[in-house]
Design brief:
Rossmann fold, DNA polymerase, domain 1, 13 helices, single chain, alpha/beta, about 300 residues, 6 strands
Length: about 300
């Protein structure tokens, strides 16, 4: 909680792979003066300029996926197995982003066997205990909504490519799903997640899952009541194994073994010479002019434009 009379500091945790993928597919092909593909980098750099001009976060980290199999893949081979190979030009832009983020003092972190969301969960859990600090997660999807806690941990999600965002606190999650953030893993355990190939329970859709959880609160209590309810018994009892597996795949790991970092290790830079030089090397003339321009815009709210 924030102390009376004190301004809250902000830690920005960036789901780097998610932002890069969104920008790659949202923008037309662009190349550097040397001919390398760069539209994803352009899009992410544009987002960062907007964020910095609206109010530079005091601290930040960019979290990346790694190419090695994750613990989820080891547990369930079909996890994300249906996803096509990365299109040409995407992987090299993911690598290039490791140079973009440090130009603003954004610490880059990754861990073999874990996904970016797990690192975000680990850092959010670690630093949410800090007084007078708000943790804001910036992502292109909704997977981190399970981490939302009051207004102390919030999630900003890109919408419509990279042109709009929506901020979720606990009230925002309740409005969207009719559930608490802590119930979202149970929700996905029931309905599944086609984007990640998480199976869920056959025949359970969003409306049914939401009703079950509003009544019984959790997956565990739901299954405790199947014997007393014929409808639950028919729909759920044969699929306890699938539900438990699905939940284990969607729950984020909050204990990834990453370096012990203090907030001071994550302090950000202004839009300054390091970032300007990076934009010049990439041929981002328009972004460079925006970055150097005076003035700022109001803090991002629901459905405000990034570009």
């Amino acid at each position: 909680m924030m102390s009376p009379g004190r301004q809250r500091n902000r830690l920005l945790l960036i789901d780097a792979n998610s932002l890069i993928h969104r920008a790659f597919h949202a923008l037309p092909p662009l190349t550097t003066p040397g001919g390398s593909p760069v539209q994803a980098i352009y899009g992410v750099a544009s987002i960062l300029i907007k964020v910095w001009k609206e109010g530079k976060p005091d601290y930040a980290a960019a979290l990346f996926d790694r190419p090695e199999p994750t613990f989820r893949k080891q547990k369930y081979e079909p996890y994300k197995a249906h996803r096509p190979p990365a299109p040409p030009g995407l992987v090299e832009q993911i690598v290039e982003a490791h140079r973009l983020f440090p130009s603003l003092g954004i610490r880059v972190l990754e861990s073999p066997g874990s996904e970016a969301d797990d690192l975000i969960a680990t850092l959010a859990t670690r630093f949410a205990k800090e007084p007078d600090l708000q943790v804001e997660i910036l992502s292109g999807d909704l997977d981190t909504l399970q981490l939302v806690r009051d207004d102390d941990v919030v999630v900003r999600v890109l919408k419509k490519g990279v042109s709009e965002t929506e901020l979720y606190n606990e009230d925002g999650v309740a409005t969207r799903f009719g559930l608490k953030p802590s119930q979202l893993t149970d929700y996905k355990a029931l309905v599944g997640d086609p984007s990640d190939n998480v199976p869920g329970v056959p025949g359970i859709g969003p409306k049914t899952a939401r009703g079950f959880l509003q009544k019984f609160d959790s997956l565990e209590r739901l299954f405790e009541n199947t014997e007393e309810n014929p409808v639950l018994l028919k729909k759920l009892a044969p699929f306890r194994k699938e539900a438990d597996l699905s939940k284990s795949l969607v729950v984020l790991d909050r204990n990834v073994p990453i370096p012990e970092l203090g907030l001071g290790d994550l302090r950000t830079h202004d839009l300054g010479e390091d970032f300007f030089a990076y934009c010049e090397r990439q041929g981002f003339g328009t972004l460079l002019r925006r970055a150097k321009a005076d003035g700022s815009s109001p803090r991002l709210g629901k459905q405000q434009a990034i570009f």
